[in-house]
Every structure is written in structure tokens, then in C-alpha cells.
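Project outcomes to date are best conveyed with an example. Our students and postdoctoral researchers have been running inverse folding experiments weekly, and each run begins with a structure described purely in C-alpha cells. The record below, which covers 428 residues, was selected by the lab manager from last quarter's runs and is presented without edits.
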């Protein structure tokens, strides 16, 4: 699996990238990871090395790379035109499919990235409530807007509910428009919402925050308190949409928000994301449905383009096949159990957290309920483990295993063998 071809262009590409890209990279993976090709649950780098792929393009490739049905749909559309800046039948069909699948979705607005979807979902909540403040959770990731980058990954967390910027270049005033609470701490959220209800425009949450599942009752209580005060609840389902269930985390956990955002899987590997939700909130996107001052102005060059739409539709067709979710959950469960067993046998203080389609190890034996708990994890050890795994043909992001419906028995077996070998390196 790790055979290198004679002419390895990696070093040359890395050198060129360092000249023209800040940090030598697109900002996602390290410059040295130069990927060439993907098929099913495997990828190959420019050196010809093959990997079982748990990166999955950071999540979109849930049905596997170059899925034949998705490829055929895209190949059929490309010669007919790739973008029109107008409605097209495929985009409309994808919006219908989203409304059929996702419990909260009565209407849909397409954008091109999760960042945009979250930005507009927060803006829609503000337009609807005619208030400014948004409550988010510490460690919750909602893309790269000024608002989303508040207390997303603070190195030195402050006092709740004060928001801390995670990036240079964000105006100081943004911190005053955001409130921050601890994920899974319903007492804190309830008292904050009671106290701030007259200023709050909305609450945004990843129903499964990064790798942390909601404690039983947390999402239900969040739903109840926001509904009590008529405050829109936004589920960021960019990761969980069509992954935890066909209807996303809202179906999986049984809690329906007012709005949600979708990305990754729904675009079938192309640039497409969406805001979906209650028609009375979504109407703020309709110039004719609301007063001028309530209109939320939103346009985007590539929004709902037919290539991304057919890729998304073909992906959803694949996901609707009977047994799809049972299969990916079985794969994920087996992998999680095996990793847990290997780490325990090695005597390392570690735990595997997440849900079967998306998990990772955290190197601490302390319970993990929120962002601050994750800071106890030994990041250096995780980095060494990831590196040892990459050398053994396993590709993953810094802190996530994304499972694909395309992962095979051979992929699972290879992964378990790689874990067993890599864990030995950690004991040196
Ligand atoms: C939960 C969540 N929301 C939003 C985003 C942003 O999506 P994008 O990278 O498409 O802007 C991501 C990206 O990983 C995400 O994980």
C-alpha cells in the first residue's frame, strides 16, 4: 500500500507551493500532503502512495470518491452548461429533496459554502427577531465569518458568556454581538437565555459539537427554552446533514430546529451549501414578501449551479438505497470498538468519542462533555499517532475519522492493523 513510484513530483510541488501560497498550503492540510486521486474509500498522493481515506475531503465524499452515479450525473450536465445564475430544474429538484428529507426544511436558499450558510442563517434569525445578539457554544464551529470565529477554539477560555475572537482582523465590536455558553450545560444556557431573551436574535449550535455528542436531554431542553421565547434555534448541520441519518442530526437525535445549515454531503463534492427552515423565517430572503427594512439581501454567483445540484441529487439517490445508513453505522461501530480495544490494550489514557459515522480518539481518560474538557486531551500524542498512521496508509484530518459508505472489509482490516502497529510507536 505504500509503494513509491520512480518519479515522485511531491518535493517539487511542495517547493512551488511555498512560493505562491502563504504557508505553502490552501490553509487546510499541511503542504506536504499532495493528493492526486480518489476512488471509493481510497486516495493516492502524488508519490503514488495509497491510503484508506478517512479525510473524505473533510466530509463531503460520504459515498466515496468518484462514485459512478455521481460522476455520470456530472458528466451528463457539464456539456449542457455549468452555471447560469438563474433557477434551473436540478437546483429546484435538490431543494425539493432537502425539504422531503430534513424535518425543519420548508424552504431552502442555496449558497456555496458552510461559512456562508451559517452567516446567512444567523442574519435570517436577526432579520426575523429584529434583534442583534446570537448565542453560540464554546468550541462550536460555524465557518469563518467574524461572528462564527468567536470562541471557536480559544487557547485561554475566558468567563462565560464573553466571546473571544479566534482570529486577527475581526472588529472588536463583534464580541459584543455574541454570547457564549458551554455545550451540554443546560443550566447555563437556560439562565443566559432567560437573562438575555429580549436581546437575543437566535441560538446556533452544532447538534453534535465537533466530536462531542449531546448529553441526553440537552438538545430537547435547548429546543424548549428557545421555543418558549420565540427565539430561532439554528442547527449547524454542515457536517451531520445526510450523515447521521438521511434527515440529519435533527432526525437522529429527534429534535427539530427552526433553521438549519447544510453543506458537504449535499453538494456531492461540489461547492454547494444551503440554509433551510421555517417558511416564515425564510421569507426574509423574498423581497416581495416582507417590508423593505426586513428584506435580507442575498445573491451569489454560483448559487444552485446545475453541476453541484446534479452531484447533490445523485448523492442523495445513493443514500436513499436501503441499508445505506445501517452499513455505514456498522462500519463505524466496528472501527470505534476496535480502536478502543487497541488503545486499552496498550494501556494508554484515551477514549474514542463521537458517533459511528464520525469519531476520533482523545488522549485523556477524563469525561468529555464540552470544549474545555477536550483541552485535556494530549494533542502532541494525537499528532504522533496520526503521523504514524499516515506512514501506514491511513489518511485523516487532525481530529476526525469520517467513515464512508464505500469503506470495504479490506479497508477496515487494513485500518485495524495500522492502529495496532501505530500504537506501538506511541509507547516508545
Ligand atoms: C459544523 C461546520 N459548520 C460550518 C463549516 C464551514 O463549512 P465550509 O468549510 O464549507 O465553509 C464547517 C466546515 O468544516 C463545519 O464543520
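After processing, the design step wrote out the following sequence:
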Amino acid at each position: 500500500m505504500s509503494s513509491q513510484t520512480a518519479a515522485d513530483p511531491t518535493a517539487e510541488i511542495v517547493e512551488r507551493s511555498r512560493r505562491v501560497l502563504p504557508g505553502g498550503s490552501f490553509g487546510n492540510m499541511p503542504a506536504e500532503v499532495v493528493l492526486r486521486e480518489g476512488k471509493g474509500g481510497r486516495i493516492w498522493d502524488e508519490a503514488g502512495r495509497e491510503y484508506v481515506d478517512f479525510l473524505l475531503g473533510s466530509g463531503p465524499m460520504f459515498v466515496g470518491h468518484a462514485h459512478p452515479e455521481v460522476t455520470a450525473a456530472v458528466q451528463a450536465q457539464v456539456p449542457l452548461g455549468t452555471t447560469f445564475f438563474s433557477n434551473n430544474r436540478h437546483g429546484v429538484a435538490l431543494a425539493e429533496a432537502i425539504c422531503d428529507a430534513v424535518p425543519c426544511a420548508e424552504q431552502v436558499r442555496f449558497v456555496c459554502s458552510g461559512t456562508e450558510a451559517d452567516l446567512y442563517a444567523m442574519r435570517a434569525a436577526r432579520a426575523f427577531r429584529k434583534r442583534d445578539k446570537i448565542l453560540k457554544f464554546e468550541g462550536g464551529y460555524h465557518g469563518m465569518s467574524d461572528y462564527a470565529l468567536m470562541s471557536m477554539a480559544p487557547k485561554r477560555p475566558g468567563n462565560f458568556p464573553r466571546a473571544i475572537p479566534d482570529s486577527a482582523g475581526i472588529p472588536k465590536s463583534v464580541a459584543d454581538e455574541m454570547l457564549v455558553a458551554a455545550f451540554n450545560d443546560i443550566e447555563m444556557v437556560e439562565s443566559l437565555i432567560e437573562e438575555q431573551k429580549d436581546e437575543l436574535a437566535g441560538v446556533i449550535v452544532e447538534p453534535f459539537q465537533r466530536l462531542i455528542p449531546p448529553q441526553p436531554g440537552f438538545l430537547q431542553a435547548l429546543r424548549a427554552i428557545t421555543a418558549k421565547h420565540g427565539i430561532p434555534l439554528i442547527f449547524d448541520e454542515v457536517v451531520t446533514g445526510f450523515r447521521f441519518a438521511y434527515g440529519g442530526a435533527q432526525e437522529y437525535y429527534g429534535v427539530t430546529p427552526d433553521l438549519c445549515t447544510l453543506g458537504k454531503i449535499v453538494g456531492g463534492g461540489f461547492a454547494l451549501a444551503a440554509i433551510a427552515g421555517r417558511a416564515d423565517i425564510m421569507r426574509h430572503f423574498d423581497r416581495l414578501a416582507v417590508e423593505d427594512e426586513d428584506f435580507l439581501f442575498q445573491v451569489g454567483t454560483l448559487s444552485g449551479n446545475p453541476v453541484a445540484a446534479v452531484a447533490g441529487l445523485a448523492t442523495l439517490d445513493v443514500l436513499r438505497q436501503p441499508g445505506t445508513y445501517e452499513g455505514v453505522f456498522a462500519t463505524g461501530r466496528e472501527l470505534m470498538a476496535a480502536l478502543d480495544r487497541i488503545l486499552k490494550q496498550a494501556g494508554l489514557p484515551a477514549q474514542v468519542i463521537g458517533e459511528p459515522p464520525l469519531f476520533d480518539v482523545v488522549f485523556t481518560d477524563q469525561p468529555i462533555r464540552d470544549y474545555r474538557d477536550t483541552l485535556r486531551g494530549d494533542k502532541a500524542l494525537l499528532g504522533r499517532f496520526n503521523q504514524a498512521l499516515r506512514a501506514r496508509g491511513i489518511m485523516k484530518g487532525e481530529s476526525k475519522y469520517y467513515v464512508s459508505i464505500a469503506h470495504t472489509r479490506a479497508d477496515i482490516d487494513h485500518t485495524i492493523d495500522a492502529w495496532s502497529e501505530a500504537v506501538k510507536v506511541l509507547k516508545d
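The first helix runs from residue 10 to 20. Residues 368 and 374 are 6 Å apart (CA to CA). The training component of this project remains on track.
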